[in-house]
Amino acid sequence: MRSIDTLEQFYEIMSETRSTRRVLTCLHFRNEPYSDAHIAPLKEALLYLNRIPEANGQKCLKLDDKKTILLDLTYEIGELKKDIFFLEHNEPDFFKMLADLHDNFAKEVAEGVNKLKDIHFKAFITDRDGTVNNYCGRYASSIQSAYNAVFLSRFAQCCTDNSIILTSAPLDNIGLVDLSVSPKNAFIFAGSKGREYFNKEGKRCQFPIAQEKQNILNMLNEKLGNLVKEPKYLQFSLIGSGLQYKFGQTTIARQDITKTIPEDESLAFKAIVASIIKEIDPENKFFRTEDTGKDLELILTIENSDDSQELKDFDKGDGVTFLNNDLKLEMETGPNLICGDTNSDVPMLPSAIEKSKDVYSVFVTKDDALKEKVRNTCKNSIIVSEPDILVTILNNLAQ
Ligand SMILES: [Mg+2]
């Protein structure tokens, strides 16, 4: 029997579920048979995760010899349970399981399908976390579920010319492609808010960054990398988003969703990061800092497209424009579908509408202000309450 005592062992077992899920997704997607032996590693992983000792309702893992960390593994355990059920039962029974988990499931699915049926989309561009993937507190273990990959791939294949996952997370090196289990070429993966992507031939393509700016970003990355090697700050690289080097942007966690770090320690760390930025960018020319409360997003500025010479940070709307041009998506002919779950996804809407008025959107949110903003920006918008509802709508549209 294997036991999971350390955070490292936990990440290892989660990463193993990715290969298992990838094989099962492909077999299920192609309607090919699979056996109990294929599913067994997922059952073992679930067993191991359930056995991790608990304290205050959270799982307790060792960081090193001295320190332990409490983690909420709702995503990892919940998604394993769903996958095992999905792979062992028929789909109507799986939908019943989802309906038991989420209020208004059947109603929201029916409404969404009704509004989007019989449309073939030129481009489907969607955020990942919290939109088409259930939210997980730790990026590195948010492995995509097999059912999720099957549903999304069916939609991508039947109802779109091009399907793109556009995330603010890095593309690889514990990035988007390391967490995805969908069949090859079902999706184009774009990371760093669309500043970089892999094309269908597997080639990395990037939004150009001036050498001077890249040098400054490299300097910042080196300093942050050294900072989190200090024992006192190590924890910030292990919680939540950790330290992520993206193209044109770096993210460092100062807190996670379950507030593992005492707030004064978290704010002190934020001040240290601010002082590093001040040191390398004293005139505030190169970086914009966004504090999400959990992560510090350190974003390289770009020139504004309106020739005002003003500097702005690169947003997902800029990402959509870059991808449309670079991948020749022909969004101008429409219709296009844009999906998101937070304010940072909203800039994709005007960017798409600017190319073709024929834009549909689905946002996954319970936030009234965001619902209002989405409805005011895009007239064909649908609001749902859970990622599972959105992926079921997309699956049903492909049937
Ligand atoms: Mg999101």
Commentary on this structure:
The chain is an alpha/beta fold. The protein has 2 domains: 7-207 and 316-397, HAD superfamily/HAD-like (Rossmann fold); 211-313, 2-Layer Sandwich (Alpha-Beta Plaits). Helices cover 44% and strands 19% of the residues. The protein contains 14 helices and 16 strands. It has helices at 7-29, 36-51, 74-88, 91-101, 105-116, 146-159, 176-179, 211-227, 235-238, 263-280, 316-326, 348-355, 368-377, 387-397; strands spanning 54-55, 58-62, 68-71, 121-126, 160-166, 188-191, 196-198, 204-206, 243-246, 249-253, 287-291, 295-303, 311-313, 336-340, 359-364, 380-384. The chain has an 8-stranded mixed sheet, with helices on both faces. Strands 9, 10, 11, 12 and 13 form a 5-stranded antiparallel sheet that branches. A 3-stranded antiparallel sheet has the order 1-2-3, with no helix packed on it. Helix 6 crosses helix 14 (387-397). The two termini are 42 Å apart. The model has no long low-confidence stretch (mean pLDDT 94). Magnesium ion (MG) is lined by residues 127, 129-131, 341-342. The site of magnesium ion has 6 residues, from loops.
